[in-house]
Amino acid sequence: MIRFTLTLLLAVLGTSPLWAAQRPNIIFLMTDDQRCDNLSCYGRPEFRTHHIDELAAQGVLFNKAYYAVSICMPSRVTMLTGRYLSNHQVGFSPPYNYTLSEQGLKDSYPSQLKKAGYRTGFVGKVGFSVTEEKRRPNMFQPYDFRDHFREHFDFFAGDGTHTGSELRLWPEEDQALKEIYDKSNKKLTRTLRTGEAMLRFLETQPADQPFCLSVSFLAVKHDSTSHIYPPHLKLFQNTEFPVPENWVNGANEKLPEVVQKFWRGPKLHLQRSSTPELYQRQVRRFAAQGYTVDQQVGRMMEKLEEKGFLENTIVIYTSDNGRFQGSHGLFDKALLYEESMKAPLIVFDGRAPKEQRGRREEALISSVDIAPTILSLAGLTPPASMQGESFRQILDQTQDRPQWQDGVFMESLFINHLMGARGKPNPEEINERTIRDNKSYRCHGIRTARWKYFRYYEQDPVLEELYDLENDPLEQTNLAADPAYSETLQELRDRTQELYLKAKG
């Protein structure tokens, strides 16, 4: 009997340590538009994110985590489903403007966990629509979250941004949840409401059932002061934030011409971040919102400890995309420079022994890896539809490092002037005209431990950028035309094409 029990245990665990055998609770925290270095633990103490810093000090902080796509709707779907944008096609501009199918949601990590007996909850910005079969366009009215999300989430407080749906709350009999979102309560800004709803989920959690809670803060997106908790804005009103070395005062004429002419980032930079005064105003507002999020993380950790859940809970913290904040003479996100593509990623595991905590990890991680990792941490096999790799063994330090991925694929398929074509009868024709007129700045590429390569592949001729990030972390010198790097360039071209074909599926 003892030998049989040990054999069965080893079969379940594989090479995982014994402490990882428990069925853990999982909390996935995502902010909106929070640039990686807008956190103290990533080297910017002026942002004052003390509770998130503590999460990192007791967990694993990833130095080389990257978005597979860096704009909100497709990025959220990628992290939910473990699929690349080229595969799921849930984005803003045609032809990549489908809804997520019901089957796609069934294959997502929350649905898989619910099927396995977890209590599932969602709070905050959903950011995409689900229909029985995938369809275009994906932003339409009327739309009701209850039609497609109800069977997948036991607890739901979903904001309808980018979906056409109104805010929906369930369980309907939860009066305390309704009071949190009562519009007459003016004291609660959007981040405080999200924090209250997050705590409400934990307060109503049974002790005898594992749970998975996904929280999508609407902060730090949008810098209107109407979204910001006033006392927290006041905390930063006199803070002088250091200006990144690749911030550009005014326009950046070194950017590719197609980006200068047609991408909204240069124009938004001139409006919002192109002078020292504009830069300080913007970053103070982002910092205030990040501080409010940080306070909610602290409250959440206290609640987990109070309820006795902390020692069996995994907390994952990230954002949906980065933000330029004037770096490269750009505002917004999406393009494949570091400020847009590098993700904050922190994983705290309450089960882990002390000697495995407080670690900075250099393994390359993609946002497409998050969903399969969550399922793997829960002891489940990811569905075949998931394209990412579980980094569970990176976390518990059992991974054979030479076998781990040495490059991650990134893409940007958003064309801002095609947003208006979504509802027209000929969106694909308009897209083809955009390409034919050389107005497309769609790009894809690869990030390795040392190199960043990407190409604007619909340009004629194709435009390429190559950066040695060990020696040029701010991406100031494009080496693509330098003959000394021709072999590296060709190797990364080939690898990008290989990964692109894999991403399409």
What does this structure look like?
- The chain contains 18 helices and 18 strands.
- By secondary structure, the chain is an alpha/beta fold.
- The strands form four sheets. The chain has a nine-stranded mixed sheet with strand order 8-7-5-9-1-10-12-2-13, with helices on both faces.
- Strand 17 and strand 18 form a beta hairpin.
- Helix 9 runs parallel beside helix 13.
Whole-angstrom Rg:
22 Å
Number of helices: 18
* Poorly predicted residue ranges: 1-14
Q: In percent, how much strand structure appears in the residues? A: 15-25%
Give the termini separation: 46 Å
Percent range for helical residues? 25-40%
Q: Write down the domain tally.
A: 2
How would you name the CATH homologous superfamily of the largest domain?
A: Alkaline Phosphatase, subunit A
The level-1 CATH class of the largest domain: Alpha Beta
| Global geometry | globular
> Would you report the number of β strands?
18
Mean pLDDT: 94
What strand order characterises the main sheet? 8-7-5-9-1-10-12-2-13
Biggest sheet, open or closed, and with what strands and sense?
Answer: 9 strands, mixed
**CATH architecture identity of the largest domain:** 3-Layer(aba) Sandwich
Topology:
Layout (H helix, E strand, L loop, with lengths): L1 H12 L11 E7 L18 H8 L2 E3 L2 E2 L5 H10 L3 H4 L11 E2 H5 L2 H7 L3 E7 L4 E2 L14 H4 L5 E5 L8 E3 L4 H6 L9 H14 L7 E6 L13 H6 L21 H6 L1 H9 L3 H32 L5 E7 L18 H4 E2 L2 E4 L9 E3 L3 E2 L3 H8 L14 H4 L11 E6 L14 H10 L6 E6 L2 E6 L6 E6 L17 H19 L1
Parallel strand pairs: 1-9, 1-10, 2-13, 3-14, 4-6, 5-7, 5-9
Antiparallel strand pairs: 2-12, 3-11, 7-8, 10-12, 15-16, 16-17, 17-18
Helix pairs in contact: 9-13
